[in-house]
């Protein structure tokens, strides 16, 4: 299967547009957006552009013209379709990772993974409830994103729980980075199989804003609440 691709020029143009004044610093950067869309495309239900696009671009963009608005919509949908085609075909695709602020040569997995975790929460279905008896398997896969995003470490410190030594942490991070590309496809395949099972549980709580806590309404972070594996 041939995977749809964006040209380098189109990718650069989308990157520039997302950073433009039209979005008042509310639009996702390409790395966050790619993680976000990978999750939105991989879950137990189909997420329409009318749901994910305002979350990706911010609530009220101020476009210079209708032509600019159309260009943004066209490019971001092509970006979405490129990811969708790669996931559907099980094909490798270029992961958009910036360098860290401290070291441009060191890839910043945290932002990408934060986008993925957020994208896992935007639909009506709660991933871990929808996974049912397979929730522990899903939680194990998601741990790659929780670790690389820094959420696991942050939660351990907040709750005054033991954390890995520097050597152990470096080893765990290196392993997670190695597993990272394959895990994206693993979770996509997981949900493709699960879609043949009974319909996912629906949330009664409101949908999330970008900076809101876990979608179940507990007030806890996603990893501490719905993202925690079952015993």
UniProtKB/TrEMBL annotation:
<dbReference type="InterPro" id="IPR036255">
    <property type="entry name" value="YgfB-like_sf"/>
</dbReference>
<dbReference type="InterPro" id="IPR004027">
    <property type="entry name" value="SEC_C_motif"/>
</dbReference>
<protein>
    <recommendedName>
        <fullName>YecA family protein</fullName>
    </recommendedName>
</protein>
<feature type="compositionally biased region" description="Basic and acidic residues">
    <location>
        <begin position="201"/>
        <end position="210"/>
    </location>
</feature>
<dbReference type="Pfam" id="PF02810">
    <property type="entry name" value="SEC-C"/>
</dbReference>
<feature type="region of interest" description="Disordered">
    <location>
        <begin position="197"/>
        <end position="231"/>
    </location>
</feature>
<dbReference type="Pfam" id="PF03695">
    <property type="entry name" value="UPF0149"/>
</dbReference>
<dbReference type="InterPro" id="IPR011978">
    <property type="entry name" value="YgfB-like"/>
</dbReference>
